[in-house]
Automatic annotation (TrEMBL), chain A:
SUPFAM superfamilies: Stabilizer of iron transporter SufD. This is Fe-S cluster assembly protein SufD. The lineage of its organism: Bacteria, Pseudomonadati, Pseudomonadota, Alphaproteobacteria, Rhodospirillales. One of its GO terms (biological process) is iron-sulfur cluster assembly. It comes from Rhodospira trueperi. Pfam families: SUFBD_core (PF01458), SufBD_N (PF19295). InterPro entries: Fe-S_cluster_assembly_SufBD, SUF_FeS_clus_asmbl_SufBD_core, SUF_FeS_clus_asmbl_SufBD_sf, SUF_FeS_clus_asmbl_SufD, SufBD_N. It comes from the Bacteria.
TrEMBL record, chain B:
Residues 213-455 form the SUF system FeS cluster assembly SufBD core domain. PANTHER family: FES CLUSTER ASSEMBLY PROTEIN SUF (PTHR30508), UPF0051 PROTEIN ABCI8, CHLOROPLASTIC-RELATED (PTHR30508:SF1). InterPro entries: Fe-S_cluster_assembly_SufBD (IPR055346), SUF_FeS_clus_asmbl_SufB (IPR010231), SUF_FeS_clus_asmbl_SufBD_core (IPR000825), SUF_FeS_clus_asmbl_SufBD_sf (IPR037284), SufBD_N (IPR045595). One of its GO terms (biological process) is iron-sulfur cluster assembly. Residues 136-204 form the SUF system FeS cluster assembly SufBD N-terminal domain. Belongs to the iron-sulfur cluster assembly SufBD family. SUPFAM superfamilies: Stabilizer of iron transporter SufD (SSF101960). It comes from the Bacteria. It holds the Pfam family SufBD_N. This is Fe-S cluster assembly protein SufB.
Length: 439, 484
C-alpha cells in the first residue's frame, strides 16, 4: 500500500507512522503538511509560483530519506568562507554536529531533535507558526518530515559582536538521499545578530535533495543580518524556503550569494508585521554549465509604515538558467509602504537563459512601489576600453563581471565577511573560465 | 451658467445609469440555447460556409471538449454555464440585406444614434467605412465599393469565406490556431461574424477601417472573428469600438483577432472598449475574454496595438505580437480603467524570433472603487533574435484605498545580445497636483479626470483623432463617482 503511495507521491512519508509518540500539536502540523503536499504534489511549471522551475524530474532519481548516521568526512576544508572570528556550528546533511562553545548565556544554539524530545513546549509557539506553508508544497513536505535542524534563540537586548557561522555540509551516503532540515532563529526585542550560513558539499556527495525550511522571528527593534553562501554540489538539488516575520522597528537584512548546485531554489519571504519594520533582501548569483538557480522573493507589507528593498544581480554563462521571481505585496490599509525592487542580469552566452518575473500586488493607495528589471550582455564599449589598455578579453570580461556584482557583494557589511564573499565570487569566475572560455 | 448646466447634465447622464444601457427591440432569429455539434452545423449552414470551414469548426469544438477553463488569471467570476447561452442570433432582415443605409432597419439606425455614431454622418464627414456588427450579422458596410476598386477587401468574414475562400483558408487560424486556448478554441467552433480585411501589396489604405461591435440580444454570447492581412509594403489602420446595453445576466464575449503583416507592411489596430461593466455592486456586466494576436511575418513589418479599456465586468485580454521577420517591430499601448467592482487582467506578449526585432510596451492602469486590475505581460527573446530590444513601462494609479493594482511581467531572455528593460511604478494622484487644480477653481472630479488624462497621454495620443477625443471623454466618465 505504502509502495503505491510512494509511486504516486514521491518523497512523502508513511502516513501511518506520522506523528506517532509526539505531542498533538506537532502531529497536527505534520498531518497538515502531508495533506498540502498530497493535494499539490511535486510542483510543475503549471503551478504559477513554480512556472520556471519544475521538480517533476526528481521522480526519476530514487531518493531515500536520510536517516542520519553520516559523519563529517576527514580532511578538506569545508568552510568555504574561512571565517576565523565567529562562533561556528557544523551541520552534516542538515543535522547539527555539536554546538559552539563559549556562547554567552543569553544565546541558545541547540538541536531541533533535542528540543523536540526534551522541551517541546519551548518550540510550540514558534515551530510551524512563523512560516505559512499552505501554498508551499515543498515547505509542507518539510513539515511532514522534519526531525532535525538548528535552533537559535537570542534573549532580549543581546548584541553579538561576532557572527554565528553555520557551515552546512552535504556528505556522501549510500545512494541519493533526501533530507528536510528545519531551522529556527528567534531574536528577542532589540537583539542584534549576524548569522552567516555556508552550504557546501563534500567531494562525491552530489546527488542529494535538501528541502530546508527556516523560520525566523524578529522581536521589536531586533536586527538580523543573514548572509548566505550557496555552493552546493554539482548534482545537488537544494531547495530552501526562509520565512522571516519582522516585528515593529525591526530589520531583516539578507544577502544570498548562489554559486553552486544543479537545481537551487532560494525562496525568501519577509512578512513585515509591525510598524517601522524593514526588509532588505539582496543577493547575487553566478550560474553556468547546466545549473538552474531560482530566486523567489516575497515581501509582504502587512501593516502601514513599512519599508522593503530588493536588489539582485546575476551572471549567467553557458548552459546556465537563472530564474528571478520577486513579489511585493501591499495589503489593504498598509498605507505609506515603501517597496523597491531591482533585478539585473548579465547573459554571457547564447545558450544561457534568464527568466524574470517581478511582481507587484498592491491593495493600498498611499504607497511608493516600483520595480525594475534588465537583462543584457556586457557593454561592448567597456570591454573594448579595457582591451585597448592591454587587458586580455577574458580578463576584461571577468573584471567587468566582478564590477557588475560589486553593487551587492561590495555592500556586505564588515570587511572580512565581504572579502570572504568576494573570494567565493572570484573562485567561481576562475572555474567558469575553464568551463567555457578555454573549451 | 452654461458650464454649470453642462456639468449637471453630464453627471445626470452618467451617474444614474449606464449611458448606453438600453435594449433595442428587434425580433431576432436565433438557434436554441446550448452548444453541441448540431448548433455548429446550424451556424455553418446559416452562413453558407464551405465544407472545410465546418470541418475546422468541428475540429475546434472536439478539441474544446477536452480543455479546461484557465484559472491562472487574477480575476474571480461565477462559473459560466456554456450550455445556457445562445450561440447564434441574427437580425430578422437577413434575407434582404440592405444595400444602402436607407434600407437599414430604422430601429437599428436609432440605436446607433444613441451610441453616438450616426452612420450617415460618419460616411459623409469622417470618411470612415463602417462595418457595423449588430449582434452577429453585419448589416451595413459602407464605402465597400470604393475600397474594392482599390483592391482592399473589407467585408464580414462570413462573406469572405464565400468570396475569397483561398485567402481565408490560408490565413484563418494561422496566428491563433484552433487549439490555442480555451476561449479561442470556443470561438473557433462557434464564431458567428467579424471582419475580414485584406490590403494588397504596396497600398496605403486611404481611410481608417472601423467596426462597431455591439451586443444586443439577451444571453447571446458574441464570438467575433477578425482577420486582417496586410500584404507587402501596405498599411492599414483599423478601429474597433464597443458599447453594450444594460442587463442583469452576465454575457460572455470571446473574440479572436488575427493580424498578419508581410514584408514592410504595417498594421495599426486601435480599440476603445466600453462594454457594460455591471452596476456598482458588480452585478451584470460583460465578460470579455479576448485573444488578439498579430504576426509580423515579413521583414521590417510593424504591428501596433492601442487599447483603451474602460468597460466589462471582467476583462482578460493580451494583444500580442509575434516578431518573426527580421527588423520587425511590435508596439503595445494600453490604458485600462477599472472602477466599482470591475476586474481586469490585461497586458501583452512580445515574442522576439527574428533578428533586430524591437518591441515597446506602455501600459497605464487606473484602478478606482473596489476594482482589481492586473498588468500581465510576457517578453520572450528566442536564442536567434540577436540584437532584439524591448522596453516596457507599466504605471499604475490607484484612486481610493479599496482597490488593487498588480503588475506581473514575465521576462524570458535566451539571447545575450538582446536588451530587455522593464520599469513599473504604482502610485496615487499626487495631492499637490490635485490641490493645484482645486485652488484654480476646478472641481475635484474634473481635476481627477484632467490628471488621469495627463497620466494616460502617452497612450491616448497614439489613437486616431476621432478615437482620441472619444477616449478622453471616456476616461473622465469612467471615473465619475470615484472621488469625494
Amino acid at each position: 500500500m505504502s509502495a503505491t503511495l510512494t509511486d504516486v507521491l514521491p518523497l512523502a512519508p508513511d502516513e501511518q507512522a506520522l506523528g506517532r509518540d509526539e505531542p498533538g500539536w506537532l502531529a497536527d502540523l505534520r498531518r497538515a503538511g502531508l495533506s498540502v503536499y498530497r493535494a499539490r504534489g511535486l510542483p510543475t511549471v503549471k503551478v504559477e509560483a513554480w512556472k520556471y522551475t519544475s521538480l517533476s524530474g526528481l521522480t526519476k532519481i530514487p531518493y531515500v530519506l536520510d536517516d542520519g548516521g553520516v559523519a563529517l568526512s576527514e580532511g578538506g576544508d569545508r568552510d568555504a568562507l574561512a571565517l576565523d572570528d565567529a562562533w561556528t556550528v557544523t551541520l552534516v546533511n542538515g543535522r547539527p554536529v555539536g554546538v559552539p562553545d563559549e556562547l554567552p548565556d543569553s544565546v541558545r544554539v541547540d538541536h531541533l531533535s533535542r528540543l523536540l524530545e526534551d522541551e517541546p513546549e519551548t518550540l510550540e509557539p514558534h515551530l510551524g507558526r512563523i512560516a505559512d506553508l499552505a501554498d508551499a508544497p515543498m515547505g509542507s513536505l518539510n513539515a511532514a518530515h522534519m526531525t532535525e535542524g538548528l535552533v537559535i534563540l537570542v534573549d532580549d537586548g543581546v548584541v553579538l559582536d561576532r557572527p554565528i557561522h553555520v557551515v552546512s555540509v552535504t556528505e556522501a551516503a549510500d545512494g541519493a538521499r533526501h533530507m528536510h532540515p528545519r531551522h529556527f532563529v528567534v531574536l528577542g526585542e532589540a537583539a542584534d545578530v549576524t548569522l552567516v550560513e555556508s552550504r557546501v558539499c563534500a567531494p562525491g556527495a552530489d546527488a542529494t535533495l535538501s528541502n530546508a525550511v527556516q523560520e525566523i522571528r524578529l522581536g521589536e527593534r531586533a536586527r538580523l543580518r543573514h548572509l548566505r553562501l550557496v555552493a552546493s554540489g554539482e548534482e545537488a538539488v537544494d531547495l530552501d524556503l526562509t520565512e522571516a516575520e519582522v516585528g515593529a522597528e525591526a530589520a531583516y537584512e539578507a544577502f544570498t550569494l548562489t554559486l553552486g548546485g544543479r537545481l537551487v531554489r532560494n525562496e525568501t519571504r519577509a512578512r513585515l508585521r509591525g510598524s517601522g519594520a524593514a526588509a532588505r533582501l539582496r543577493g547575487a548569483y553566478g550560474v553556468c554549465c547546466g545549473q538552474h538557480v531560482d530566486t523567489t522573493l516575497v515581501v509582504d507589507h502587512a501593516v502601514p509604515d513599512t519599508t522593503s528593498d530588493q536588489l539582485y544581480k546575476g551572471v549567467v554563462d553557458a548552459q546556465g538558467r537563472a530564474v528571478f521571481q520577486g513579489k511585493i505585496i501591499v495589503r489593504r490599509d498598509a498605507q505609506r509602504s515603501d517597496g523597491g525592487q531591482l533585478h539585473k542580469a548579465l547573459l554571457l552566452a547564447p545558450d544561457a537563459e534568464v527568466d524574470t518575473k517581478p511582481e507587484l500586488e498592491i491593495y493600498a493607495d498611499d504607497v511608493k512601489c516600483g520595480h525594475g528589471a534588465t537583462v543584457g550582455d556586457l557593454d561592448r564599449d567597456q570591454v573594448f576600453y579595457l582591451m585597448a589598455r592591454g587587458i586580455p578579453e577574458a580578463e576584461a570580461r571577468a573584471l567587468l563581471v566582478e564590477a557588475f556584482l560589486d553593487d551587492v557583494v561590495g555592500a556586505v557589511p564588515d570587511g572580512p565577511l565581504r572579502a570572504a564573499f568576494l573570494g567565493a565570487v572570484r573562485r567561481w569566475q576562475a572555474g567558469r573560465h575553464a568551463a567555457t572560455w578555454e573549451a | 451658467m452654461a458650464a454649470t448646466q453642462d456639468t449637471v447634465d453630464r453627471i445626470a447622464e452618467v451617474s444614474g445609469a449606464y449611458k448606453y444601457g438600453f435594449v433595442t427591440d428587434i425580433e431576432s432569429d436565433k438557434a436554441p440555447k446550448g452548444l453541441n455539434e448540431d448548433i455548429i452545423r446550424f451556424i455553418s449552414a446559416k452562413k453558407a460556409e464551405p465544407e472545410w470551414m465546418l470541418a475546422w469548426r468541428l475540429k475546434a469544438y472536439r478539441h474544446w471538449l477536452t480543455m479546461t477553463e484557465p484559472s491562472w488569471q487574477k480575476v474571480v467570476y461565477p462559473p459560466i454555464d456554456y450550455q445556457d447561452a445562445y450561440y447564434y442570433a441574427a437580425p430578422k432582415s437577413d434575407d434582404d440585406r440592405p444595400k444602402s443605409l436607407d434600407e437599414v432597419d430604422p430601429e437599428l439606425l436609432r440605436t446607433y444614434e444613441k451610441l453616438g455614431i450616426p452612420l450617415k454622418e460618419q460616411e459623409m464627414l469622417a470618411g470612415v467605412a463602417v462595418d457595423a456588427v449588430f449582434d452577429s450579422v453585419s448589416v451595413a458596410t459602407t464605402y465597400k465599393k470604393k475600397l474594392e476598386q482599390m483592391g482592399v477587401i473589407f467585408c464580414p468574414i462570413s462573406e469572405a469565406a464565400q468570396r475569397f475562400p483561398e485567402l481565408v483558408q490560408k490565413y484563418l487560424g494561422s496566428v491563433v490556431p484552433y487549439s490555442d486556448n480555451f476561449f479561442a478554441t470556443l470561438n473557433s467552433a462557434v464564431f458567428t461574424d467579424g471582419s475580414f480585411v485584406y490590403v494588397p501589396k504596396g497600398l496605403r489604405c486611404p481611410m481608417e477601417l472601423s467596426t462597431y461591435f455591439r451586443i444586443n440580444e439577451q444571453n447571446t454570447g458574441q464570438f467575433e472573428r477578425t482577420l486582417i492581412i496586410a500584404d507587402e509594403g501596405s498599411y492599414v489602420s483599423y478601429l474597433e469600438g464597443c458599447t453594450a446595453p444594460q442587463r442583469d445576466d452576465n454575457q460572455l464575449h470571446a473574440a479572436v483577432v488575427e493580424l498578419v503583416a508581410m514584408d514592410d507592411a504595417e498594421i495599426k489596430y486601435s480599440t476603445v472598449q466600453n462594454w457594460y461593466p455591471g452596476d456598482e455592486t458588480g452585478k451584470g456586466g460583460i465578460y470579455n475574454f479576448v485573444t488578439k494576436r498579430g504576426a509580423c511575418r515579413g521583414r521590417n513589418s510593424k504591428i501596433m496595438w492601442t487599447q483603451v479599456e474602460t468597460g466589462s465586468a471582467v476583462t482578460w485580454k493580451y494583444p500580442s505580437c509575434i516578431l518573426q521577420g527580421d527588423n520587425s517591430s511590435g508596439e503595445f499601448y494600453s490604458v485600462a480603467i477599472t472602477n466599482n467592482a470591475q476586474q481586469a487582467d490585461t497586458g501583452t506578449k512580445m515574442i522576439h524570433i527574428g533578428k533586430n526585432t524591437r518591441s515597446r510596451i506602455i501600459s497605464k492602469g487606473i484602478s478606482a472603487g473596489r476594482a482589481d486590475q492586473t498588468y500581465r505581460g510576457l517578453v520572450k527573446v528566442m536564442p536567434k533574435a540577436t540584437g532584439a530590444r524591448n522596453f516596457t513601462q507599466c504605471d499604475s494609479l490607484l484612486i481610493g484605498d479599496r482597490c488593487g493594482a498588480h503588475t506581473v511581467p514575465y521576462i524570458e531572455n535566451r539571447c545575450p545580445s538582446a536588451q530587455v528593460e522593464h520599469e513599473a511604478t504604482t502610485s496615487r494622484i499626487s495631492e499637490d497636483q490635485l490641490f493645484y487644480c482645486l485652488q484654480r477653481g476646478i472641481p475635484e472630479e474634473d481635476a481627477v479626470a484632467l490628471i488621469v488624462n495627463g497620466f494616460c497621454k502617452e497612450v491616448l495620443q497614439t489613437l486616431p483623432m476621432e478615437f482620441a477625443v472619444e477616449a478622453q471623454k471616456l476616461v473622465g466618465i469612467s471615473l465619475e463617482g470615484s472621488v469625494g
